[in-house]
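Reply to thread "Modeling small-molecule complexes from scratch"

Following up on the discussion above, here's a worked example others can learn from. I took a protein sequence and the SMILES for flavin mononucleotide and predicted the complex. Inputs first:
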Amino acid sequence: MATFDYDAECNRQLDRVIEARRTVRSFTDEVPDRELIERILNAGLAAPYAAVAIGVEPRFRRFFVMPRGGEAALKTAEIMKRNTLAAWQNIHANLPEGMEPPPFAMRLKAIAEGGDIGFEKVPYFIVVAELKGIPPVEQESLAHVLQNMWLKAAALGLGFRLISATSRLADNPDFCGLLGLAPGRFGINGCAIGYAAETPAATPRPPLDEVTAWLD
Ligand SMILES: Cc1cc2nc3c(=O)[nH]c(=O)nc-3n(C[C@H](O)[C@H](O)[C@H](O)COP(=O)(O)O)c2cc1C
């Protein structure tokens, strides 16, 4: 038996949300209601988890909500800057002679030199942690969680930005201490949520038929 009866209007609305989703990188100062944030977290909680990999731990998924300018957000920014500096230095030291740093490395450099990480001016920075299991598929689960949250934020009229630098802190004792997690036990990732200051244009995608093969 189907768990969900086909509903044309519901599908139209789902398509609207998928199409409206954007990476938002500039936000207003308005702080979204806590209830909206909780609805987004519930969407993340509803995302699939790798049941066989994580076993019976009931709190396999955790959310940490950090308001802008709060102690946790400030400490996180500090830890992330130190971590980013180390990552940049490591890439720089290992670049083959004469090779330009790739765009990703230049972004690390800009942050290490004092640039914004991306959540400092946003009302909420949210860290999601997923228990590591066997096999280690926590990053896949986190992608599902964040995508659910992203679509829910879009449906609620809120802007969303992935802060993937967060994932580098999964083994960081200072950061894990801040969250009360054992270093290395969870995979983590993060996002910033608030009201968009402007609606970004849609980013390009190739035509479907150029990237799709129907095989016999
Ligand atoms: C795995 C992954 C990591 C990403 N990390 C970041 C990030 O750390 N900061 C950011 O601003 N955007 C990040 N993005 C957003 C992409 O740059 C964005 O999705 C892409 O440019 C397409 O734009 P759209 O999301 O508006 O469709 C990430 C996207 C993915 C899929």
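What I'd highlight from this example: The mean pLDDT is 96. Residues 23-70+117-194 form a domain with the NADH Oxidase fold (CATH 3.40.109.10). Questions welcome below.
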